[in-house]
Write a structure and sequence with these properties.
FAD/NAD(P)-binding domain, eight-stranded mixed β-sheet, globular, FAD/NAD-bd_sf, oxidoreductase, FAD-dep_OxRdtase
Length: 445
């Protein structure tokens, strides 16, 4: 099996590490540890990505817990090493106005601040631990792809400035955008958030792994959590014929969770494929022809968004939605579609193809926002909607606080379980219909 789909396959055991551009920049670990004997822990964490490793780190360093992390493949298999490396001050898919309509201004402002705190926390981790992750200049540009989109984007900007008093936001008109940031077709202005930046996510992830190990966390790779049960107050997890026990069980694999691993997360999310390509390094003339004048991260306002940035070695990274069904993810037509979108945005590069191309799953929840939830000694973090690089740092701290009986903010993202998705196995049909609708909408508006 080489086309893992969380909706249809029981687990992702035995899958190779993804062949990404990030992997070419990092020496990958070949040392694999497995459980060797039955052991009792305070907490068992399922999933060795950003959230799992950082939660374990916080549990060990802040709360003196004995912790292990179980990873079915190797650290770097899942979304944490497949993403575009955008550290953004947001997550989920709710606009500021939608947040206020749903929760009221006070709660929405607090949730908004939690999202901002994700960026502050990752910046502090990079500084404190001297993490070499190719951090680029600050700035996240949300670029309007039409005049109508610019009007909506400007309204959202004014609303966020007024209600959330966000001083990181600034408006960039089309002349300033094209003169100082990017000059490409179908750009009509942008909102800039100075509280965001790009990085190499695999370098960051491997540093999180080292931090957790140095804190005394046992990290077991190629160690699928095959079965779980409960004896008294202890969770029992079977791994490679070894039984591990713990008071707390935390499920942090997000979109890469096993399909039927536990009823707590069953049918709580929709895994959505996103694809990324990276070109060869651009020449000086090619770079000038693109209109790119910054290394800040960028995303457009299309319903099916495209996102892009110039990497430190002058390669162009360009990403967008991939196949609907996991079994189709390697079909050449999806790479061609993304390449065509890159050529449309950067017509001077119409002869340029990808040096690297890969895809990975993000997790979307039914109510379009993340849930970090803990009850009866079992918890999970889920639903970053593709923006988990930064917010996973904040979510990890909150999940560690919950698992240590420490107080966390009384907010819906922390107090309410993720709603179940009806007919989860058939949601791909709805996703396919939505993609067709979105493509039509993006062409018209």
């Amino acid at each position: 099996m080489n086309t893992y789909d969380p909706l249809y396959h029981a687990n992702c055991k035995g899958q190779p590490l993804p062949s990404t551009y990030w992997a070419t920049q990092v020496k990958q670990s070949v040392v694999i540890r497995n459980p060797e004997e039955s052991t009792k822990y305070d907490t068992i964490v399922i999933g060795g990505g950003f959230t799992g490793l950082l939660t374990a780190y916080y549990l060990a360093t802040l709360y003196d817990q004995r912790v292990c992390v179980l990873e079915a493949n190797q650290v770097g298999f899942g979304a944490s090493a497949r993403n575009a490396g955008f550290a953004l001050p947001t997550t989920g898919r709710l606009s500021p106005l939608s947040m206020v309509k749903q929760w009221g201004e006070d709660i929405a402002s607090q949730v908004y601040q939690e999202y901002q705190s994700g960026v502050s926390r990752i910046k502090e981790l990079i500084r404190t631990h001297n993490i070499d992750c190719d951090q680029q200049e600050y700035g996240y540009l949300k670029i309007a792809h039409s005049k109508q989109a610019m009007m909506s984007l400007f309204d959202s900007f004014q609303y966020a400035k007024k209600v959330f008093s966000d001083e990181h936001l600034s408006f960039i008109d089309v002349e300033e955008l094209r003169a100082n940031y990017i000059n490409m077709p179908n750009t009509y202005g942008a909102i800039r958030n100075q509280h965001g930046f790009g990085l190499n996510p695999l370098k960051l992830l491997y540093t999180y792994k080292r931090m957790a190990q140095q804190a005394g966390v046992d990290i077991f790779e190629q160690s699928l959590a095959e079965r779980i049960g409960k004896v008294g107050t202890d969770h029992i997890v079977d791994v490679n014929s070894i039984q591990l026990k713990a008071k707390n069980l935390l499920i942090t694999a997000n979109a890469y969770n096993n399909r039927d691993f536990h009823s707590t997360i069953s049918k709580k999310y929709l895994p959505i494929l996103s694809s990324i390509l990276v070109t060869r390094p651009l020449s000086k003339d090619e770079l000038a022809s693109t209109g790119l004048r910054t290394n800040q991260v960028m995303m457009d306002t299309r319903t099916l968004k495209y996102y892009y940035r110039l990497l430190p070695d002058n390669r162009l990274l360009f990403g967008g939605r991939g196949a609907v069904y996991g079994k189709d993810q390697d079909k050449i037509k999806y790479q061609r579609h993304l390449t065509h979108a890159m050529h449309s945005g950067f017509p001077a590069l119409k002869s340029l193809t990808a040096d690297h191309y890969w895809h990975g799953y993000i997790a979307a929840t039914l109510d379009d926002h993340p849930h970090i939830y803990f009850k009866d000694n079992i918890g999970y973090a889920i639903g970053y909607c593709g923006a988990g690089v930064a917010f996973s740092a904040q979510a990890s701290l909150r999940l560690a606080q919950m698992a240590s009986s420490n107080k966390t903010p009384s907010l819906p993202i922390y107090r309410k379980p993720a709603p179940s998705m009806p007919f989860a196995r058939f949601s791909r049909l709805g996703q396919l219909a939505y993609y067709h609708y979105a493509q039509l909408k993006d062409s018209l508006f």
